[in-house]
Amino acid sequence: MPAPLVVGFDLDMTLVDSRPGIAAVLEALAAELGVEIPVHEVTSQLGPPLDQLLAPYLPAEEIDAAVDRFRALYPDLAVAATPTLAGASEAVAAVRAHGGSVLVVTGKHEPNARRHLDHLGLEVDTLAGDVWGPGKGAALGAAGAGVYVGDHVHDVAGARAADALSVSVLTGPSSREQVLDAGTDVVLDDLTGFPAWLDSHVLTSRLADLEERLVGLGSVLVAFSGGADSALLLAAAVRALGPEHVVAATGYSHALPAAERDPAREFAEGLGVRVLTPATHELEREGYRANAGDRCFFCKTELMDVLVPLAAEHGLAAVATGTNADDLAAGFRPGIRAAADAGAVRPLADAGLTKAQVRAASLLWGLPTWDKPAAACLSSRIAYGVEVTAAGLARVEAAERGLRALLAEAGTPVRDLRVRDLGADAARVELDADLAGRLAAGDPLAERVRAAVLAVGFADAEVDPRGFRSGAMNELLPDPERWR
């Protein structure tokens, strides 16, 4: 897996607008000390340590005491008066959404920095205070931060000291020209643009990781179903290795809908790779036919038993599957275990690419599969415990084909559609949620949908009012942990 995402943020004028609170403390401090402090001027230059900000207005021997008094006054006068800057909460949430850790590295006195975070509800994993400029590099490096976001040229220096990517926001005293001259990598007007930038950065990083992994293989046979995941993997392999070092292999069996075959072959041929369509014989495996919770293990084992020798025959170094990072996180995936047992590699998952990122990358690369609906094998429509047979698979395929034709004729577009064989000749139809809701509410089309399913041999059929749900059959499995 790729290195964990760790993003550091400065605090003052990056996450929070500390000017009102600091102004209130400075005014109280000036009144106590009987000195003139140009509050507006000082708060317009926030960033350097407090002793540097006070140095022009106090004798050197009085500064340490003034700093101590400032910090004592701070909790009561500054914390409640300090709001977050636009986009701050969303920026932290964006890091979390990518499974990352959030670090705050600030020149502010650490106890007061903690008070701000707690008061504003900004949850961070690590806080390092009382550090400034290049000195921030040690805290960033210790946490493994790959990105540091700040508003000052000295924040750029901190990022550089940690060999982290520097992202500058223009909400503090440093101008665009100043942060660019200091060597920042990215400039944003404010944090509202950070989530979109982070999405792009993470995707770019993970695609680079994917390319590196594929180059390391040298050559590869891609287990190609024609779906979005394996399509991106195939395209990435061609980019990394050249089409002469890549082969697409699609296992043909009763479980692969006929409608999926030609589009898959045409996509692969369009990339310039050899396309192999070996037959697989899942139905000859007792465990597959029995259709217990580990059915996918036997299916994938059959596929690997065909593809691994095929890769060796064609002089290819590895067999790769389109498993993505979300598949690994889902947990209940016996097929993934079977592929791993056979020595197959999973470059998408190992690069950390999620399903959403697979689709985003596919759109970026202009692949027609970027928005292709999930298309699991036909056996996934058969309820666990109901024997999988060629006739049963054909009946489900015919029902889905008939329903798509019916809905197209009725001018009712549908994206996701499943006919689930529940056993005892009963079927459940899952459709896009809005369409399922219409049918459940009494749309006349509901009876035609039911009739189309009955026409292929089911004795009973119902439309699930909850709509399509990927992996819905797993909901009926009493103990999925048993099959992992």
TrEMBL record:
Coiled-coil zones: none
InterPro entries with a match to the protein in the record: HAD-like_sf, HAD_2, HAD_sf, Ni-pincer_cofactor_biosynth, PGP-like_dom2, Rossmann-like_a/b/a_fold
The UniProt record lists the keyword S-adenosyl-L-methionine: no
GO molecular function: hydrolase activity
Pfam assignment, any one: HAD_2
Source superkingdom: Bacteria
Keyword ATP-binding: no
Assigned keywords, A-Z: Hydrolase
Entry protein name: HAD hydrolase-like protein
Species annotation: Nocardioides bruguierae
Lineage: Bacteria, Bacillati, Actinomycetota, Actinomycetes, Propionibacteriales
